[in-house]
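Progress note, sequence design subtask.
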Protein backbone atom coordinates (compact mmCIF):
# COMPACT_ATOMS: atom_id res chain seq x y z
CA UNK A 1 0.00 0.00 0.00
CA UNK A 2 2.70 2.37 1.00
CA UNK A 3 4.70 1.72 -2.17
CA UNK A 4 1.59 2.13 -4.30
CA UNK A 5 0.68 5.32 -2.50
CA UNK A 6 4.21 6.59 -3.08
CA UNK A 7 4.06 5.75 -6.80
CA UNK A 8 0.68 7.45 -7.07
CA UNK A 9 2.07 10.43 -5.24
CA UNK A 10 5.01 10.51 -7.66
CA UNK A 11 2.70 10.33 -10.68
CA UNK A 12 0.54 13.07 -9.20
CA UNK A 13 3.61 15.17 -8.51
CA UNK A 14 5.03 14.68 -12.00
CA UNK A 15 1.70 15.58 -13.64
CA UNK A 16 1.65 18.63 -11.44
CA UNK A 17 5.18 19.55 -12.55
CA UNK A 18 4.26 19.01 -16.22
CA UNK A 19 1.18 21.21 -15.82
CA UNK A 20 3.15 23.82 -13.95
CA UNK A 21 5.73 23.97 -16.75
CA UNK A 22 3.00 24.69 -19.30
CA UNK A 23 2.55 28.08 -17.66
CA UNK A 24 5.55 30.38 -17.52
CA UNK A 25 6.70 31.47 -14.11
CA UNK A 26 5.02 34.87 -14.10
CA UNK A 27 7.74 37.34 -14.90
CA UNK A 28 8.46 40.14 -12.46
CA UNK A 29 6.91 42.79 -14.68
CA UNK A 30 8.19 45.67 -12.55
CA UNK A 31 11.75 44.46 -13.06
CA UNK A 32 11.09 43.73 -16.74
CA UNK A 33 9.71 47.26 -17.21
CA UNK A 34 12.83 48.74 -15.60
CA UNK A 35 14.97 46.66 -17.96
CA UNK A 36 12.80 47.74 -20.91
CA UNK A 37 13.13 51.40 -19.96
CA UNK A 38 16.89 51.18 -19.88
CA UNK A 39 17.01 49.29 -23.18
CA UNK A 40 14.70 51.87 -24.78
CA UNK A 41 16.96 54.72 -23.69
CA UNK A 42 19.98 52.91 -25.13
CA UNK A 43 18.14 52.01 -28.33
CA UNK A 44 17.00 55.59 -28.97
CA UNK A 45 20.70 56.58 -28.86
CA UNK A 46 21.40 54.21 -31.78
CA UNK A 47 21.01 56.67 -34.66
CA UNK A 48 18.86 55.07 -37.37
CA UNK A 49 17.52 58.31 -38.81
CA UNK A 50 16.27 57.53 -42.30
CA UNK A 51 17.72 58.69 -44.64
CA UNK A 52 20.27 57.17 -44.54
CA UNK A 53 18.93 54.60 -42.03
CA UNK A 54 22.11 52.75 -41.04
CA UNK A 55 19.84 50.06 -39.58
CA UNK A 56 22.77 47.67 -39.28
CA UNK A 57 23.62 49.51 -36.04
CA UNK A 58 20.17 48.65 -34.63
CA UNK A 59 20.43 45.06 -35.84
CA UNK A 60 23.78 44.74 -34.00
CA UNK A 61 22.22 46.33 -30.90
CA UNK A 62 19.61 43.57 -30.76
CA UNK A 63 22.13 40.85 -31.61
CA UNK A 64 24.12 41.84 -28.52
CA UNK A 65 21.00 41.75 -26.32
CA UNK A 66 19.86 38.36 -27.65
CA UNK A 67 23.41 36.86 -27.60
CA UNK A 68 23.68 37.66 -23.88
CA UNK A 69 20.58 35.53 -23.25
CA UNK A 70 21.51 32.66 -25.57
CA UNK A 71 18.62 33.48 -27.93
CA UNK A 72 19.54 32.48 -31.52
CA UNK A 73 19.80 35.62 -33.60
CA UNK A 74 20.90 36.48 -37.13
CA UNK A 75 21.73 39.84 -38.68
CA UNK A 76 20.58 39.76 -42.31
CA UNK A 77 22.90 42.09 -44.16
CA UNK A 78 21.42 44.09 -47.04
CA UNK A 79 24.59 46.10 -47.86
CA UNK A 80 25.24 49.85 -47.47
CA UNK A 81 25.02 49.55 -43.68
CA UNK A 82 21.40 48.40 -43.91
CA UNK A 83 20.20 45.17 -42.33
CA UNK A 84 17.28 43.25 -40.87
CA UNK A 85 17.56 41.22 -37.67
CA UNK A 86 15.75 38.04 -36.70
CA UNK A 87 15.74 36.09 -33.40
CA UNK A 88 13.94 32.98 -32.18
CA UNK A 89 12.40 31.52 -29.04
CA UNK A 90 11.37 28.12 -30.29
CA UNK A 91 8.24 26.17 -29.45
CA UNK A 92 7.17 22.60 -30.16
CA UNK A 93 6.14 23.43 -33.73
CA UNK A 94 2.61 22.15 -33.06
CA UNK A 95 1.32 25.45 -34.47
CA UNK A 96 2.84 27.90 -36.95
CA UNK A 97 4.99 30.77 -35.58
CA UNK A 98 4.08 34.27 -34.44
CA UNK A 99 6.31 37.10 -35.71
CA UNK A 100 6.85 40.26 -33.64
CA UNK A 101 7.65 42.78 -36.36
CA UNK A 102 9.18 46.21 -35.83
CA UNK A 103 11.02 48.58 -38.13
CA UNK A 104 14.50 49.70 -37.12
CA UNK A 105 14.55 53.14 -38.77
CA UNK A 106 13.08 56.43 -37.55
CA UNK A 107 12.11 59.66 -39.32
CA UNK A 108 14.44 62.68 -38.97
CA UNK A 109 13.96 65.02 -36.00
CA UNK A 110 14.42 68.79 -36.17
CA UNK A 111 16.40 69.25 -32.94
CA UNK A 112 15.68 73.00 -32.92
CA UNK A 113 11.99 72.31 -32.33
CA UNK A 114 12.53 69.81 -29.49
CA UNK A 115 12.98 70.66 -25.81
CA UNK A 116 15.37 67.68 -25.36
CA UNK A 117 18.06 66.31 -27.69
CA UNK A 118 16.05 63.90 -29.93
CA UNK A 119 18.54 61.03 -29.80
CA UNK A 120 19.59 61.21 -26.13
CA UNK A 121 16.91 58.90 -24.70
CA UNK A 122 16.42 61.35 -21.86
CA UNK A 123 14.05 60.60 -19.00
CA UNK A 124 11.96 63.45 -17.68
CA UNK A 125 8.70 63.76 -15.69
CA UNK A 126 7.90 60.06 -16.02
CA UNK A 127 8.56 59.85 -19.75
CA UNK A 128 11.33 58.53 -21.98
CA UNK A 129 11.84 61.16 -24.69
CA UNK A 130 13.36 60.53 -28.09
CA UNK A 131 12.77 59.98 -31.77
CA UNK A 132 11.20 56.56 -32.12
CA UNK A 133 9.83 56.39 -28.55
CA UNK A 134 6.43 55.52 -30.03
CA UNK A 135 7.30 54.97 -33.73
CA UNK A 136 8.45 52.34 -33.14
CA UNK A 137 11.47 51.75 -30.95
CA UNK A 138 9.27 51.46 -27.85
CA UNK A 139 7.31 48.62 -29.41
CA UNK A 140 10.54 46.95 -30.57
CA UNK A 141 11.71 46.92 -26.96
CA UNK A 142 8.38 45.49 -25.75
CA UNK A 143 8.85 42.74 -28.38
CA UNK A 144 12.46 42.23 -27.27
CA UNK A 145 11.84 41.91 -23.53
CA UNK A 146 8.92 39.54 -24.20
CA UNK A 147 11.45 37.29 -25.97
CA UNK A 148 13.80 37.58 -22.97
CA UNK A 149 11.04 36.75 -20.49
CA UNK A 150 9.89 33.70 -22.46
CA UNK A 151 13.43 32.40 -22.79
CA UNK A 152 14.26 32.95 -19.10
CA UNK A 153 11.13 31.22 -17.86
CA UNK A 154 11.73 28.19 -20.12
CA UNK A 155 8.01 28.35 -20.92
CA UNK A 156 6.69 25.60 -23.18
CA UNK A 157 5.31 27.05 -26.39
CA UNK A 158 3.14 25.62 -29.16
CA UNK A 159 4.55 28.15 -31.61
CA UNK A 160 7.96 29.67 -32.25
CA UNK A 161 8.08 33.36 -31.37
CA UNK A 162 10.14 35.25 -33.94
CA UNK A 163 11.49 38.76 -33.42
CA UNK A 164 11.94 40.58 -36.73
CA UNK A 165 13.43 44.07 -37.05
CA UNK A 166 13.41 45.52 -40.56
CA UNK A 167 15.16 48.36 -42.39
CA UNK A 168 13.68 51.30 -44.25
CA UNK A 169 9.97 51.31 -43.41
CA UNK A 170 9.75 55.07 -43.22
CA UNK A 171 11.22 55.85 -46.65
CA UNK A 172 10.60 52.42 -48.10
CA UNK A 173 12.17 53.12 -51.44
CA UNK A 174 15.83 52.17 -51.40
CA UNK A 175 16.10 49.29 -49.00
CA UNK A 176 12.72 48.27 -47.68
CA UNK A 177 13.52 45.42 -45.33
CA UNK A 178 10.02 43.92 -45.44
CA UNK A 179 10.10 43.55 -49.22
CA UNK A 180 13.65 42.24 -48.99
CA UNK A 181 12.55 39.54 -46.50
CA UNK A 182 9.66 38.40 -48.70
CA UNK A 183 11.92 38.27 -51.75
CA UNK A 184 15.12 36.83 -50.24
CA UNK A 185 14.62 35.28 -46.80
CA UNK A 186 11.03 34.17 -46.38
CA UNK A 187 12.52 30.93 -44.97
CA UNK A 188 13.67 32.88 -41.90
CA UNK A 189 10.00 33.36 -40.92
CA UNK A 190 9.50 29.57 -40.72
CA UNK A 191 6.10 29.54 -42.42
CA UNK A 192 4.67 31.84 -39.73
CA UNK A 193 0.92 32.28 -39.41
CA UNK A 194 0.68 35.64 -37.63
CA UNK A 195 2.52 38.94 -37.57
CA UNK A 196 2.00 41.56 -34.87
CA UNK A 197 3.32 45.02 -35.72
CA UNK A 198 2.69 48.78 -35.64
CA UNK A 199 -0.42 50.58 -36.80
CA UNK A 200 -2.96 51.28 -34.09
CA UNK A 201 -2.75 51.96 -30.33
CA UNK A 202 -5.16 51.84 -27.43
CA UNK A 203 -7.06 55.10 -27.59
CA UNK A 204 -6.96 56.68 -24.12
CA UNK A 205 -8.30 59.85 -22.58
CA UNK A 206 -6.07 62.53 -21.08
CA UNK A 207 -6.10 60.60 -17.78
CA UNK A 208 -4.68 57.51 -19.52
CA UNK A 209 -7.94 55.56 -19.14
CA UNK A 210 -8.61 53.36 -22.18
CA UNK A 211 -11.55 54.19 -24.45
CA UNK A 212 -10.96 51.70 -27.27
CA UNK A 213 -8.45 49.03 -28.25
CA UNK A 214 -7.80 49.76 -31.91
CA UNK A 215 -6.42 46.97 -34.05
CA UNK A 216 -5.41 47.66 -37.62
CA UNK A 217 -6.45 44.74 -39.82
CA UNK A 218 -6.67 46.57 -43.14
CA UNK A 219 -4.81 49.25 -45.04
CA UNK A 220 -5.92 51.24 -48.04
CA UNK A 221 -3.64 51.28 -51.06
CA UNK A 222 -1.97 54.32 -52.54
CA UNK A 223 -2.31 55.52 -56.10
CA UNK A 224 -0.15 58.63 -56.50
CA UNK A 225 -0.51 60.54 -59.73
CA UNK A 226 1.15 63.38 -61.58
CA UNK A 227 -1.11 65.11 -64.07
CA UNK A 228 0.43 67.43 -66.65
CA UNK A 229 -1.32 69.88 -68.97
CA UNK A 230 0.31 71.67 -71.89
CA UNK A 231 -0.86 74.67 -73.91
CA UNK A 232 0.23 77.85 -75.62
CA UNK A 233 2.56 79.99 -73.53
CA UNK A 234 2.02 83.72 -73.50
CA UNK A 235 1.86 87.02 -71.65
CA UNK A 236 -0.38 87.24 -68.61
CA UNK A 237 -2.00 90.40 -69.98
CA UNK A 238 -3.83 88.34 -72.64
CA UNK A 239 -5.75 85.43 -71.03
CA UNK A 240 -5.37 81.99 -72.61
CA UNK A 241 -8.57 80.01 -71.96
CA UNK A 242 -6.90 76.86 -73.28
CA UNK A 243 -3.55 77.47 -71.61
CA UNK A 244 -1.92 74.75 -69.50
CA UNK A 245 -2.95 76.28 -66.16
CA UNK A 246 -6.56 76.87 -67.26
CA UNK A 247 -6.92 73.25 -68.40
CA UNK A 248 -5.28 71.87 -65.29
CA UNK A 249 -7.35 73.96 -62.88
CA UNK A 250 -10.60 72.94 -64.61
CA UNK A 251 -9.61 69.25 -64.39
CA UNK A 252 -8.50 69.44 -60.76
CA UNK A 253 -11.65 71.31 -59.81
CA UNK A 254 -13.68 68.36 -61.09
CA UNK A 255 -11.48 65.88 -59.20
CA UNK A 256 -11.88 67.83 -55.94
CA UNK A 257 -15.67 67.68 -56.32
CA UNK A 258 -15.68 64.00 -57.32
CA UNK A 259 -17.34 61.59 -54.87
CA UNK A 260 -16.20 57.98 -55.41
CA UNK A 261 -18.74 55.24 -54.89
CA UNK A 262 -19.19 53.98 -51.31
CA UNK A 263 -18.28 50.34 -50.55
CA UNK A 264 -18.55 48.42 -47.30
CA UNK A 265 -15.65 46.09 -46.44
CA UNK A 266 -15.89 43.53 -43.56
CA UNK A 267 -13.49 45.24 -41.11
CA UNK A 268 -15.29 48.58 -41.52
CA UNK A 269 -18.65 46.92 -41.01
CA UNK A 270 -17.34 45.36 -37.79
CA UNK A 271 -15.87 48.70 -36.73
CA UNK A 272 -19.12 50.59 -37.34
CA UNK A 273 -21.09 47.98 -35.44
CA UNK A 274 -18.78 48.39 -32.43
CA UNK A 275 -18.86 52.19 -32.36
CA UNK A 276 -22.65 52.18 -32.80
CA UNK A 277 -22.86 51.17 -29.13
CA UNK A 278 -21.65 54.59 -28.00
CA UNK A 279 -23.18 56.70 -30.80
CA UNK A 280 -26.42 58.62 -30.42
CA UNK A 281 -29.47 58.23 -32.66
CA UNK A 282 -30.05 58.54 -35.55
CA UNK A 283 -26.35 57.95 -36.37
CA UNK A 284 -26.28 54.79 -34.22
CA UNK A 285 -28.89 53.15 -36.48
CA UNK A 286 -26.89 54.15 -39.58
CA UNK A 287 -23.73 52.60 -38.13
CA UNK A 288 -25.59 49.43 -37.17
CA UNK A 289 -26.92 48.96 -40.70
CA UNK A 290 -24.64 50.91 -43.05
CA UNK A 291 -25.97 49.09 -46.12
CA UNK A 292 -29.47 50.43 -45.57
CA UNK A 293 -28.09 53.85 -44.62
CA UNK A 294 -26.05 54.10 -47.82
CA UNK A 295 -29.15 53.33 -49.90
CA UNK A 296 -31.05 56.30 -48.43
CA UNK A 297 -29.89 59.80 -49.54
CA UNK A 298 -30.42 61.53 -46.19
CA UNK A 299 -28.88 58.73 -44.10
CA UNK A 300 -26.04 58.37 -46.61
CA UNK A 301 -25.03 62.02 -46.31
CA UNK A 302 -25.16 61.74 -42.51
CA UNK A 303 -22.88 58.70 -42.58
CA UNK A 304 -20.42 60.31 -45.00
CA UNK A 305 -20.39 63.72 -43.29
CA UNK A 306 -17.47 62.71 -41.08
CA UNK A 307 -14.19 62.71 -43.11
CA UNK A 308 -12.82 59.62 -41.34
CA UNK A 309 -16.01 57.60 -41.89
CA UNK A 310 -16.12 58.79 -45.47
CA UNK A 311 -12.50 57.70 -46.07
CA UNK A 312 -13.27 54.30 -44.51
CA UNK A 313 -16.18 53.79 -46.90
CA UNK A 314 -14.69 54.79 -50.22
CA UNK A 315 -11.65 55.77 -52.24
CA UNK A 316 -10.34 59.28 -51.61
CA UNK A 317 -8.82 61.81 -53.99
CA UNK A 318 -6.68 64.69 -52.67
CA UNK A 319 -5.09 67.24 -54.98
CA UNK A 320 -1.90 67.96 -53.06
CA UNK A 321 0.45 69.82 -55.42
CA UNK A 322 0.05 72.47 -58.14
CA UNK A 323 2.79 73.84 -60.34
CA UNK A 324 2.56 76.48 -63.04
CA UNK A 325 4.62 79.57 -63.73
CA UNK A 326 7.03 81.14 -61.23
CA UNK A 327 6.42 84.53 -62.84
CA UNK A 328 3.13 86.30 -62.23
CA UNK A 329 2.95 87.75 -65.77
CA UNK A 330 3.87 84.57 -67.69
CA UNK A 331 1.33 82.01 -68.91
CA UNK A 332 3.42 78.79 -68.84
CA UNK A 333 3.40 76.19 -71.60
CA UNK A 334 3.15 73.44 -68.99
CA UNK A 335 1.43 73.01 -65.63
CA UNK A 336 1.21 69.96 -63.37
CA UNK A 337 -0.62 68.66 -60.33
CA UNK A 338 0.06 65.91 -57.79
CA UNK A 339 -2.91 63.79 -56.75
CA UNK A 340 -2.95 61.40 -53.76
CA UNK A 341 -5.60 58.68 -54.15
CA UNK A 342 -6.24 55.94 -51.58
CA UNK A 343 -8.22 52.87 -52.54
CA UNK A 344 -10.04 50.23 -50.49
CA UNK A 345 -9.18 46.51 -50.68
CA UNK A 346 -10.63 45.01 -53.84
CA UNK A 347 -10.51 48.24 -55.86
CA UNK A 348 -8.64 48.13 -59.16
CA UNK A 349 -6.12 50.95 -59.61
CA UNK A 350 -6.27 50.84 -63.42
CA UNK A 351 -10.04 51.11 -63.48
CA UNK A 352 -9.95 53.93 -60.91
CA UNK A 353 -7.47 55.88 -63.03
CA UNK A 354 -9.78 55.56 -66.05
CA UNK A 355 -12.66 56.87 -63.93
CA UNK A 356 -10.57 59.89 -62.89
CA UNK A 357 -9.73 60.65 -66.51
CA UNK A 358 -13.43 60.60 -67.34
CA UNK A 359 -14.27 62.80 -64.34
CA UNK A 360 -11.52 65.32 -65.20
CA UNK A 361 -13.09 65.60 -68.67
CA UNK A 362 -10.16 67.54 -70.06
CA UNK A 363 -8.58 66.15 -73.23
CA UNK A 364 -4.84 66.08 -73.77
CA UNK A 365 -3.71 65.72 -70.15
CA UNK A 366 -0.78 63.42 -69.38
CA UNK A 367 -1.46 61.03 -66.46
CA UNK A 368 1.54 59.38 -64.78
CA UNK A 369 1.49 56.91 -61.87
CA UNK A 370 4.16 58.11 -59.41
CA UNK A 371 3.62 55.22 -56.95
CA UNK A 372 1.03 52.56 -56.23
CA UNK A 373 0.44 49.70 -53.80
CA UNK A 374 -2.17 47.04 -53.13
CA UNK A 375 -4.81 47.42 -50.39
CA UNK A 376 -4.96 44.52 -47.95
CA UNK A 377 -7.17 43.08 -45.22
CA UNK A 378 -6.66 40.34 -42.62
CA UNK A 379 -9.45 38.25 -41.10
CA UNK A 380 -10.40 38.90 -37.47
CA UNK A 381 -11.36 35.24 -37.03
CA UNK A 382 -8.02 34.10 -35.62
CA UNK A 383 -6.29 32.97 -32.42
CA UNK A 384 -4.21 36.17 -32.40
CA UNK A 385 -7.25 38.43 -32.60
CA UNK A 386 -8.92 36.44 -29.81
CA UNK A 387 -5.71 36.76 -27.75
CA UNK A 388 -5.92 40.54 -28.11
CA UNK A 389 -9.57 40.41 -26.98
CA UNK A 390 -8.54 38.33 -23.96
CA UNK A 391 -5.89 40.91 -23.11
CA UNK A 392 -8.56 43.60 -23.32
CA UNK A 393 -10.72 41.55 -20.89
CA UNK A 394 -7.76 41.29 -18.53
CA UNK A 395 -6.53 44.89 -18.62
CA UNK A 396 -9.45 47.07 -19.76
CA UNK A 397 -12.65 45.02 -19.33
CA UNK A 398 -15.68 46.41 -21.10
CA UNK A 399 -13.64 48.59 -23.47
CA UNK A 400 -14.38 47.76 -27.13
CA UNK A 401 -11.82 46.21 -29.49
CA UNK A 402 -12.25 48.18 -32.73
CA UNK A 403 -10.91 47.62 -36.23
CA UNK A 404 -10.75 51.07 -37.80
CA UNK A 405 -9.09 50.89 -41.21
CA UNK A 406 -5.60 52.36 -41.32
CA UNK A 407 -5.83 55.03 -43.98
CA UNK A 408 -2.04 55.18 -44.47
CA UNK A 409 0.42 52.39 -45.32
CA UNK A 410 2.97 50.33 -43.34
CA UNK A 411 5.02 47.17 -43.87
CA UNK A 412 1.87 45.21 -42.96
CA UNK A 413 0.76 45.57 -46.57
CA UNK A 414 3.85 43.76 -47.85
CA UNK A 415 3.39 40.85 -45.45
CA UNK A 416 -0.38 40.57 -45.98
CA UNK A 417 0.24 40.28 -49.71
CA UNK A 418 2.67 37.45 -48.94
CA UNK A 419 -0.15 35.58 -47.17
CA UNK A 420 0.36 36.35 -43.47
CA UNK A 421 -2.40 37.42 -41.09
CA UNK A 422 -1.07 40.79 -39.91
CA UNK A 423 -2.41 43.05 -37.17
CA UNK A 424 -1.18 46.54 -36.45
CA UNK A 425 -1.53 46.79 -32.69
CA UNK A 426 0.79 48.35 -30.12
CA UNK A 427 0.11 47.96 -26.44
CA UNK A 428 0.28 51.62 -25.48
CA UNK A 429 -2.56 53.64 -23.95
CA UNK A 430 -2.07 56.83 -25.91
CA UNK A 431 -3.89 59.99 -24.83
CA UNK A 432 -4.31 63.15 -26.88
CA UNK A 433 -0.99 64.64 -25.72
CA UNK A 434 1.12 61.52 -26.26
CA UNK A 435 0.33 60.92 -29.93
CA UNK A 436 3.60 62.39 -31.18
CA UNK A 437 4.84 59.90 -33.77
CA UNK A 438 6.83 61.82 -36.41
CA UNK A 439 6.25 64.96 -34.29
CA UNK A 440 8.34 67.00 -31.85
CA UNK A 441 9.21 65.80 -28.34
CA UNK A 442 8.11 62.23 -29.13
CA UNK A 443 7.81 60.33 -25.85
CA UNK A 444 6.56 57.23 -24.07
CA UNK A 445 5.45 57.26 -20.43
CA UNK A 446 6.96 54.89 -17.89
CA UNK A 447 3.40 53.85 -17.01
CA UNK A 448 3.00 52.79 -20.63
CA UNK A 449 6.30 50.91 -20.61
CA UNK A 450 5.15 48.98 -17.53
CA UNK A 451 1.70 48.28 -18.97
CA UNK A 452 2.94 47.57 -22.51
CA UNK A 453 5.52 45.03 -21.38
CA UNK A 454 2.93 43.03 -19.44
CA UNK A 455 0.22 43.33 -22.13
CA UNK A 456 2.57 42.23 -24.94
CA UNK A 457 3.72 39.27 -22.87
CA UNK A 458 0.07 38.39 -22.12
CA UNK A 459 -0.91 38.40 -25.81
CA UNK A 460 2.14 36.43 -26.93
CA UNK A 461 1.63 33.86 -24.18
CA UNK A 462 -2.11 33.61 -24.92
CA UNK A 463 -1.49 32.74 -28.55
CA UNK A 464 1.78 30.78 -28.25
CA UNK A 465 1.81 29.14 -24.81
CA UNK A 466 1.47 25.34 -24.72
CA UNK A 467 -2.14 24.36 -24.05
ZN1 LIG B 1 6.38 53.32 -37.86
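Output:
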Amino acid sequence: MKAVALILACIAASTFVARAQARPATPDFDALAREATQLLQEYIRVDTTNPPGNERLAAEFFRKVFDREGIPCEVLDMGKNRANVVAYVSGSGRKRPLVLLNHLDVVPADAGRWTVPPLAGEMRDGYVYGRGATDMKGTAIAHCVTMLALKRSGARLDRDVIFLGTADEEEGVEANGAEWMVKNRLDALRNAEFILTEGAYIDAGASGKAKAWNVDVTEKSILWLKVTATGRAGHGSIPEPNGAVAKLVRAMNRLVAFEPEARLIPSVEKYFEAIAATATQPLAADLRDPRAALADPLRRSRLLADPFRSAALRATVSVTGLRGSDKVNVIPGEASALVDCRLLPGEDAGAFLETLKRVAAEPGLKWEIVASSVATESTTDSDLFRAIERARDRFDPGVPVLTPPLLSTTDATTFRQAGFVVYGFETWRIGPDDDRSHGDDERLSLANVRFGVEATHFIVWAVCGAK
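Confidence is low (pLDDT under 50) at residues 1-21. Work on this subtask will continue into the next period as scheduled.
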